[in-house]
Write a structure and sequence with these properties.
By secondary structure, the chain is α+β, with helices and mostly antiparallel strands. The protein has a single domain, classed as 60s Ribosomal Protein L30, Chain: A (2-Layer Sandwich). The chain contains 2 helices and 10 strands; from the N terminus they run βββββαβαββββ. The protein has a 5-stranded mixed sheet, with no helix packed on it. Strand 8 and strand 9 form a beta hairpin. The chain starts with 8 loop residues before the first strand and ends with a strand. The model has no long low-confidence stretch (mean pLDDT 90).
Length: 161
């Protein structure tokens, strides 16, 4: 198993989301530190989405629609539903939220991101079906739209959630 490099690669940069219903699409978020990648996939419609959240809260920003969890989560979930997914049957997986910065006791951005995401999902009646949150190492993640596999690459290993 490797994180793919292919012509069908769709990259979610910081504050971005990518969506697809193409079976050959690979949705990727590179270099997650304290950021969180949220993958949502509907097994019936084979619609998948990946959002790359940077911070727990902040103002809505049209150029970076999912930069902040509080203002971007609904936008992301609405975009998934607009593609034909039904949230009640989706797998919802997340990775990231590492403790990357420790300045004078630490800003704990990763931990704050994790808590904000889990709370926001709960408020919307959703729960993570799997997660790899926390730790101190950066990650790259990939959602395989064909089958919903969520791959996590950290240092020299690739695992599946």
């Amino acid at each position: 198993m490797t994180v793919a490099e292919s012509p069908n690669l769709m990259v979610a940069g910081i504050g971005e989301m990518v969506l697809s219903s193409s079976a050959d699409a690979h949705l990727v978020a590179y270099g997650l530190g304290s950021c969180i990648a949220l993958a949502v996939w509907d097994p019936r419609t084979k619609v998948g989405g990946l959002a790359h959240f940077m911070l727990p809260a902040g103002p809505a920003n049209g150029s970076s629609p999912v930069k902040f969890i509080d203002s971007g989560l609904d936008l992301f979930l609405q975009a998934i539903e607009a593609r034909g997914a039904m949230l009640s049957r989706c797998s919802v997986k997340a990775a990231g939220a590492a403790a990357m910065l420790t300045v004078g006791g630490g800003l704990a951005i990763g931990k704050r991101n994790s808590e904000a995401l889990e709370s926001a999902l709960r408020d919307r009646g959703l729960n993570l079906t799997a997660s790899a949150l926390g730790g101190t190492a950066g990650r790259t993640v990939q959602l395989e739209v064909a089958d919903g596999r969520f791959l996590i690459k950290s240092l020299s290993s690739v695992t599946e959630l």
